[in-house]
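Board notes (copied after class):
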Amino acid sequence: MSQSQTYATILAEERRGGFRHAALAALVVLVCIAALWITGFFDSRRFVEGIPALAQLASEMVPPDFTRWQAWLKPLLDTLAMSIAGTVLAVILSLPLAILAAPNTSPNMAVCQLARTLLALLRSIPEIILGVIFVAAVGFGALPGVLALALHSVGMVAKFYAEAIEHVDPKPLEAARAAGATPLQVITHSVLPQVFPQLADITLYRWEYHFRA
């Protein structure tokens, strides 16, 4: 094959790739527009009719009323305690599951798939359902809320942890294994130092979610 033929083949392949990318982008745009249309986003009448109600709500919110601030202290403290406790429990449960769900730290692919399936199952259960279950198990109070927040968050936090672990630089892991390090030593000395900033970001994000929830 001559150089000109090779060049023409490359150009043809690039054009085909560009067409596929353009078609995919057009499909994504159409799906987004359809979703907005179905949900009524393009119904301008609803936005116009909602302006008076929005203005009234804003007038009632400003200025804020702090005359009953003392009554807010205990609920605020309970919310803060629940968010911290739920996050701590979620992290404690998520880190081992994330290590099992990451292909580069899991003992084998069967364990990896099992851990990923468990995380997907936890993510699929709404928090309100978990709350009802734990209320039936331990009674009313802050405890069932903490347990519901923690267990639901495990599915999401462990997933993010596993993705961070999966994308670490493999060279330190290979060097540690070649030096005879145990699996625990590989994780503590080669994996966690690389992903600690990402894990901290994920944990803080989830704590913020718990506080607002």
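Comment from the instructor: Residues 3-61 form one domain. Residues 66 and 72 are 10 Å apart (CA to CA).
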